[in-house]
Amino acid sequence: MASQKERETHVYMAKLAEQAERYDEMVESMKNVAKLDVELTVEERNLLSVGYKNVIGARRASWRIMSSIEQKEESKGNEQNVKLIKGYRQKVEEELSKICSDILEIIDKHLIPSAGTGEATVATATANTELSSTHPIRLGLALNFSVFYYEIKNSPERACHLAKQAFDEAIAELDTLSEESYKDSTLIMQLLRDNLTLWTSDLPEDGGEENVKSDEPKAVEPKSADAKSAEAKSTEANSVEPEEASKDKQ
């Protein structure tokens, strides 16, 4: 049984790494906490989430830049440069795949088995099935998943379908929305609608898939234990971070 002192040390080092913007080390510290096989606190879950968000976000940004340069070089007919860029882009894709597999393993092997009842279980396993259509966590999940389909899978049709379904279901239950989550939920619903407007312009008239993209879509990002710090370090300019993700941090 790990000592409380060891746990507190890992959490402190994660916070320190966040302040220093050394997110890979932040992730390692929080992985050490997860591997203690204890139910994470709200603060610990947020630190883990913010750490992974940043290590993934940095590589996503790199991937976008390289993809843009690759398209420009292709249009110029610079095949040698295209070959070099593809190799570099694939390296980033492999890193992304490894990071995603890493967090999934942490969730399956440590977080879910260690989660008790209530919010901890919802956060790791049952958000989509047990939360209402207007709950900000469920809406945020739908928003981010739709962005994944659009941005990573190059599937604007599926992205639009998921975003529209989440938006319509939330609208249908808008009268049941609690005062506590009203602000967060309506903000995310607005992002869903904004993305739908953006994405429908990318859909060809025949309904097929298309890879040409407009402006960058908007997604929800979590806050860490230090809300102001997380906002300052956010890599997405147009995002909303629901208060639900940062409760009990004060």
Which properties best describe this structure?
single chain; 250 residues; mainly alpha; Delta-Endotoxin, domain 1; 2 domains; 9 helices; flat; disordered C terminus; 14-3-3_domain
Tell me what you see in this structure.
With 250 residues, this protein is mostly helical. It folds into 2 domains: 1-127, 14-3-3 domain (Delta-Endotoxin, domain 1, Up-down Bundle), CATH 1.20.190; 131-227 and 236-242, 14-3-3 domain (Delta-Endotoxin, domain 1). Helices cover 68% and strands 0% of the residues. The protein contains 9 helices and no strands. The longest helix is centred in the middle third of the chain and has 36 residues, at 79-114. The radius of gyration is 19 Å and the shape is flat. Residues 207-214 and 222-250 have low confidence and may be disordered.
Question: What is this structure, in a nutshell?
Answer:
The protein is mostly helical and 250 residues long. It is built from nine helices and no strands. The protein folds into two domains: 1-127, 14-3-3 domain (Delta-Endotoxin, domain 1); 131-227 and 236-242, Delta-Endotoxin, domain 1 (Up-down Bundle).
Q: Helix count? A: 9
Please count the beta strands (DSSP E, at least 2 residues each).
0
Largest sheet: none
Beta-strand portion reads: under 5%
List the helices and strands and how they pair.
Blueprint: H1 4-19, H2 23-34, H3 42-76, H4 79-114, H5 119-130, H6 136-151, H7 156-172, H8 182-200, H9 227-232
